[in-house]
Amino acid sequence: MAKIICWCIIVLPFFIYLNDFTSFCGLSLDFYSSSCPNVELLIKDTVRSATAVDPTIPGKLLRLVFHDCIVEGCDGSVLVQGNDTERSDPANTSLGGFEVVENAKRWLEVLCPGIVSCADILVLAARDAVEIARGPSVAVPLGRLDGRTSSAANVRPNMVDTSFSIDEMTQLFSSKGLSLDDLVILSGAHTIGKAHCSAFSERFEEGPKGTLEPIDASLNKDYAMELIKQCPAGASGAVTVNNDPITASIFDIQYYKNLIAGKGLFSSDSVLMSDSRTRDRVESLSTNQDEFFKSWSESFLRMVSIGVKTGNNQGEIRTSCSSFNI
Prior knowledge:
Keywords: Oxidoreductase, Peroxidase. It is an enzyme of class 1 (oxidoreductase). This is Class I peroxidase protein. Its EC number is 1.11.1.7. This protein is mainly alpha-helical. It folds into 2 domains: 7-160, Orthogonal Bundle (Peroxidase, domain 1); 166-299, Peroxidase, domain 2 (Orthogonal Bundle), CATH 1.10.420.10. It has 14 helices and 4 strands. Helix 4 (39-53) runs antiparallel to helix 6 and helix 4 crosses helix 7 (118-132).
């Protein structure tokens, strides 16, 4: 099945990007203004209520939208349950936040049946998650359709691994129309959220006494020992740690400060500081939150434009986000 990918707008300046988005992708800032005028308010209230109960929700939603967009484009395909779907792949089994999207969808099906796509709900929920975590608010063009396919086989070839090198990440991002600067900016999402111990286990090895020892010289020694305390040898696969050990629930520039201090949780974080192509950008962002917020808004919009599907032949509006329409 053919899909529309908005490669041509990705290189445009931010202000042109927003103004011309509709002419390229069939999306618009007021897409639901007549058909479902309260959609953004309802989704934001849903995210806010969920976060009040579970403070980890913002990080989960941000990770969820990335895993959706990076594979088959921003089409809600990661939300579909079933054997051999994207959601079933081991790289996605630790994802969370699905219930937030489903709750918003149920309300919208009552108020505006058959109007709002799960793909748009997920993008808006992730946008709101950042704002609720004290990050920037981004005006997001809407009108995406939900994809009609979801295949586990598409996940691994398109997914960033936490042990990737700069070259591996750059190649993958470039294939999606994203730049090296987008890589640095979007990695800033790790300023919130949690990770399972297995996501950074390659940075440690089991010593002769059965305890873990750090083997990655880029890790701050004190931070490495703290991670070992939280994730000892033989720790349950359910154990998680904060991506950001300082301001875990706040969307800020602490992530970049952590990289400079040798406290990047993943190998893919630390290489941003050790590689000359990205080091200066990390250092610049670590001292200027306004710059980070502006850049985040631009890179987030580029990310949520990947693989956008519009037009009846491209997708559908699912009744339930977890299953295709019959």
